[in-house]
Amino acid sequence: MFCARRLLLLRAAARPALPVPPPRARGYAEAAAGPTPMAFTFASPTQVFYNGANVKQVDVPTLTGSFGILASHVPTLQVLKPGVVTVYAEDGTATKYFVSSGSVTVHADSTVQVLAEEAVTMDMLDLAVSYPAPRGPAASWRGFAPCPSCVGWASQELPGAAESPDQGLCPHPELLHRPLIGIKGSGLLLSELSAGCGERKPCSR
Amino acid sequence: MDLPLTVLLCWRTSEPLLISPAFVFRGQVRNMATLKDITRRLKSIKNIQKITKSMKMVSAAKYARAERELKPARVYGTGALALYEKAEIKAPEDKKKHLLIGVSSDRGLCGAIHTSIAKTLKNEITNLTNAGKEVMVVGVGDKIRGLLQRTHGNYFLLTFKEVGRRPPSFGDASIIALELLNSGYEFDEGSVIYNRFRSVISYKTDEKPIFSFETVAGSESLSIYDDIDADVLRNYQEFTLANILYYSLKESTTSEQSARMTAMDNASKNASEMIDKLTLTFNRTRQAVITKELIEIISGAAAL
């Protein structure tokens, strides 16, 4: 679902020229000055997942594309897009979290803060009430009715999708609906998530 | 029972005038309250003690919950403020427009919570206006408005009500941030003044900086951060503002509930002291009334 993952090394070309590089930043040609471990903080307003933890890599979906953050990443500020944050621990195990929005900050001393407005582990997503994003023109918010066929995140093609390419996935375009993601136990429905990359397949997670 | 004896002794040694009950009482230094007055006072203070005790219980429950929710909020808030600390963003000295956000609540009976915020706000307003800056104040909580309205009413940009009834959520902080950004006041830098929670018995009025989009974008220490375009930075700034407000709301609520718990506890203790003193006075008065009636009876019988 995400756009192509950009690796660090490929981004060198687009940087604007700075008059004098500040002493803390390192140029791309220099090797990192020793392995500074990454102090990773990942929190939502109600829950802390990692606080200054030492992890190997974090993949974040941002508005400018999703990328992976390792120790000694170049400092940056980014804004999160709805999607999945994957944290690779020191022993290689990957944990996935769904985030609705938020910010990512990477500092020069290898501290990384990912602050998400809503963040849940994947098992907290309630598939019974989650709808995929509609691709057709979203009309008014009123007249919202659940579509009987567009239920659940599924990795298979929804029936009828091929027959109505303009309406996207849902074969019931007359029912105006918007994407919803349900979170178990909280009665929370995250709606108004922007359609991501415009692909027509529902994402397989 | 020494009391009636004392009264009888005084009566015997006093002048042999016609001693009527009214005369005895008129000669006293102060008007002795009647039994009915003391009973009424006692009943009302007992009611007040019940109320303050129950308010203390309610505050204790709310404080427990607020403290629990403060733990992740603190990590979240320090994460949001980390950029300003690490990048050492400072507004240039010639920038004129300043914003002060005082975070408190609507409800009183919590000690010095509101007055400490109002005092800090007043000092800051004076300092900034003396330095030639333009200041506007945002009050979160009706008490701030009430305390500052008369003297600094023209500095108010926005006031938020219905704060403190329910525990603050991120949604509340977003509403405040949104109204602030839509208010049209283009501040250059500002600070959030709130009560930082230290322990059950202590809190401290603290100040955290906030910066506008232009100040952050123009700061030279931001150049080490790679690949930032204006849209991303603006989104980031707005989100950080909401985060800082959320953090200050959480700290404020916890401080307020703990202060209310302490205040109500002290009030209950004072009320029980008053009840003890009044009960003693009540008993003394009751005995005095009995003695007076005995004297009347005896003097009446002696006159026969």
TrEMBL record, chain A:
UniProt domain ATP synthase F1 complex delta/epsilon subunit N-terminal: residue ranges: 39-119
A GO CC term assigned to this protein in UniProt: mitochondrial inner membrane
Keywords carried by this UniProt record: ATP synthesis, CF(1), Hydrogen ion transport, Ion transport, Membrane, Mitochondrion, Mitochondrion inner membrane, Signal, Transit peptide, Transport
A matching Pfam family: ATP-synt_DE_N
Membrane-spanning segments: none
Localization in the cell: Mitochondrion inner membrane
GO molecular function: proton-transporting ATP synthase activity, rotational mechanism
Range of residues in the leader sequence: 1-19
Superkingdom of the source species: Eukaryota
Main location: mitochondrion
InterPro entries: ATP_synth_F1_dsu/esu, ATP_synth_F1_dsu/esu_N, ATPsynth_dsu/esu_N
Presence of the UniProt keyword Transport in the record: yes
Family: Belongs to the ATPase epsilon chain family.
Function summary: Subunit delta, of the mitochondrial membrane ATP synthase complex (F(1)F(0) ATP synthase or Complex V) that produces ATP from ADP in the presence of a proton gradient across the membrane which is generated by electron transport complexes of the respiratory chain. ATP synthase complex consist of a soluble F(1) head domain - the catalytic core - and a membrane F(1) domain - the membrane proton channel. These two domains are linked by a central stalk rotating inside the F(1) region and a stationary peripheral stalk.
Subunit structure: Component of the ATP synthase complex composed at least of ATP5F1A/subunit alpha, ATP5F1B/subunit beta, ATP5MC1/subunit c (homooctomer), MT-ATP6/subunit a, MT-ATP8/subunit 8, ATP5ME/subunit e, ATP5MF/subunit f, ATP5MG/subunit g, ATP5MK/subunit k, ATP5MJ/subunit j, ATP5F1C/subunit gamma, ATP5F1D/subunit delta, ATP5F1E/subunit epsilon, ATP5PF/subunit F6, ATP5PB/subunit b, ATP5PD/subunit d, ATP5PO/subunit OSCP.
Matching PANTHER family: ATP SYNTHASE DELTA/EPSILON CHAIN, ATP SYNTHASE SUBUNIT DELTA, MITOCHONDRIAL
Protein's recorded name: ATP synthase F(1) complex subunit delta, mitochondrial
Organism: Calidris pygmaea
From TrEMBL, chain B:
Record's keyword annotation contains Endoplasmic reticulum: no
Gene3D superfamilies named among the record's database cross-references: 3.40.1380.10, ATP synthase, gamma subunit, helix hairpin domain
Keywords for this protein: Acetylation, ATP synthesis, CF(1), Hydrogen ion transport, Ion transport, Membrane, Mitochondrion, Mitochondrion inner membrane, Phosphoprotein, Transport
Cellular compartment(s): Mitochondrion inner membrane
GO MF term set: proton-transporting ATP synthase activity, rotational mechanism
Bilayer topology annotation: Peripheral membrane protein
Signal peptide: none
Keyword Membrane: yes
Cellular component, GO annotation: mitochondrial inner membrane; proton-transporting ATP synthase complex
UniProt subunit comment: Component of the ATP synthase complex composed at least of ATP5F1A/subunit alpha, ATP5F1B/subunit beta, ATP5MC1/subunit c (homooctomer), MT-ATP6/subunit a, MT-ATP8/subunit 8, ATP5ME/subunit e, ATP5MF/subunit f, ATP5MG/subunit g, ATP5MK/subunit k, ATP5MJ/subunit j, ATP5F1C/subunit gamma, ATP5F1D/subunit delta, ATP5F1E/subunit epsilon, ATP5PF/subunit F6, ATP5PB/subunit b, ATP5PD/subunit d, ATP5PO/subunit OSCP.
Similarity field: Belongs to the ATPase gamma chain family.
Function recorded in the entry: Subunit gamma, of the mitochondrial membrane ATP synthase complex (F(1)F(0) ATP synthase or Complex V) that produces ATP from ADP in the presence of a proton gradient across the membrane which is generated by electron transport complexes of the respiratory chain. ATP synthase complex consist of a soluble F(1) head domain - the catalytic core - and a membrane F(1) domain - the membrane proton channel. These two domains are linked by a central stalk rotating inside the F(1) region and a stationary peripheral stalk.
Name of the protein in its database record: ATP synthase subunit gamma
Organism: Calidris pygmaea (Spoon-billed sandpiper)
